């Protein structure tokens, strides 16, 4: 059973775990007895450390996913002590570039790979990227906890973030900020971010962002700045919510009902900025990488997704 969005390159994650493990062939490494087959970084099998007889899996990419990826890595060490999952962030674009160059075993991405990126990966490595959905997220619209704004339309978000600068003051949205400052401080992500790319596609319809934004290098940085700036608005993964900020409900169109990000609204797709969290490998994952991804999709791995503030995959879906 393949995901209809891209039947040639997506691994269905909703199978029962027994079937999933069977599909992943989690019976072990290759016939040489080396952990994971030992075919090297970028092979989708993990890289063996001959001195320690351990396997190192390189896992690079999405800053949105970096916290949950670090939790997965730490917990998996208890399951497979011989496997070290080395997690790096930098953004979805960084992970995908590393995969295209054959420099990582797994690329984390909070957006889908583009057709051009898949083609370049195939050209560089001779292998087709394969996507595994490992959870779901929503891009939350964040404002300071004292900001009275409760909802906003996708159109007004485009007015704030778009290059035309159609909306620059809170009073244009009928809002008075405590302290009297009316100018909207616009907080964004850097352009290597999958969150940036997703927001640009779904809110700006692939048009350019405005000039003069505060472009932050990490998801947490966005929320931190908004928490300290009463007149700010920002977007970031729903897992970065703190008590110093609040979510603004979002409507797909003016006049329609606005929804906040939650497990329910992500699963029923009523929240306009819901998305999948993806792991990409070069070809179907093999050996220890295969086992690791199967564990991420297991009940134990998905508990970590929910604990991190994201939406786990529904069993049997």
Question: How many discrete domains?
Answer: 2
Low-confidence stretches: 1-40
Helix coverage percent: 25-40%
Radius of gyration: 21 Å
Q: Which H/E pattern describes the elements?
A: EHEEHEHEHEEHEHEHEEEHEHH
What top-tier CATH class of the largest domain fits best? Alpha Beta
What is the average of the pLDDT values? 86
Strand residue percentage: 15-25%
Got a strand count? 13
Corresponding CATH architecture of the largest domain? 3-Layer(aba) Sandwich
* Shape by Cα distribution: elongated
CATH superfamily of the largest domain: Periplasmic binding protein-like II
CATH domain fold name of the largest domain: D-Maltodextrin-Binding Protein, domain 2
Structure description:
The protein is of the alpha/beta class. The chain has 2 domains: 10-137 and 277-307, D-Maltodextrin-Binding Protein, domain 2 (3-Layer(aba) Sandwich), CATH 3.40.190; 138-267, Periplasmic binding protein-like II (D-Maltodextrin-Binding Protein, domain 2), CATH 3.40.190. It is 29% helix and 22% strand. The chain contains 10 helices and 13 strands. It has helices at 17-24, 66-79, 92-100, 115-125, 154-161, 194-202, 219-227, 263-267, 287-296, 299-307; strands at residues 10-11, 47-49, 54-61, 83-88, 106-109, 129-144, 151-153, 185-189, 214-216, 232-237, 245-247, 249-251, 274-282. The strands form 2 sheets. Strands 1, 2, 3, 4, 5, 6, 8, 9, 10, 11 and 13 form an 11-stranded mixed beta sheet that branches. The longest helix is centred in the N-terminal third of the chain and has 14 residues, at 66-79. The protein is elongated, with a radius of gyration of 21 Å.
């Amino acid at each position: 059973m393949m995901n209809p969005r891209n039947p040639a390159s997506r691994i269905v994650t909703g199978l029962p775990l027994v079937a999933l493990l069977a599909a992943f062939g989690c019976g072990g490494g290759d016939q040489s007895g080396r952990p994971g087959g030992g075919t090297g970084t970028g092979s989708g099998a993990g890289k063996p450390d001959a001195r320690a007889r351990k396997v190192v899996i390189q896992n690079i990419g999405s800053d949105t996913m970096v916290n949950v990826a670090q939790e997965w890595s730490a917990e998996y060490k208890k399951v497979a002590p011989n496997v070290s999952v080395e997690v790096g962030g930098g953004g979805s674009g960084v992970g995908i570039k590393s995969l295209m160059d054959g420099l990582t075993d797994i690329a984390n991405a909070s957006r889908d790979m583009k057709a051009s990126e898949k083609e370049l990966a195939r050209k560089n490595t001779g292998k087709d990227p394969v996507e595994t959905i490992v959870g779901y997220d929503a891009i939350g619209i964040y404002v300071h906890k004292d900001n009275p704004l409760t909802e906003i339309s996708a159109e007004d978000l485009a007015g704030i973030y778009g290059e035309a600068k159609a909306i620059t003051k809170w009073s244009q949205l009928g809002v008075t900020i405590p302290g009297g400052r009316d100018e909207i401080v616009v907080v964004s992500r850097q352009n290597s971010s999958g969150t940036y790319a997703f927001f640009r596609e779904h809110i700006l319809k692939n048009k350019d962002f405005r000039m003069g934004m505060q472009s932050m290098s990490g998801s947490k940085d966005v929320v931190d700045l908004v928490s300290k700036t009463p007149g700010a608005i920002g977007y970031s993964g729903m897992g970065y919510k703190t008590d110093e900020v609040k979510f603004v409900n979002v409507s797909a169109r003016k006049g329609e009902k606005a929804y906040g990000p939650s497990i329910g609204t992500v699963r029923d797709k009523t929240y306009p900025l819901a998305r999948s969290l993806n792991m990409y490998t070069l070809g179907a994952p093999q050996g220890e990488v295969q086992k690791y991804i199967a564990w991420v999709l297991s009940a134990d791995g998905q508990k970590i997704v929910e604990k991190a503030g994201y939406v786990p995959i529904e069993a049997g879906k």
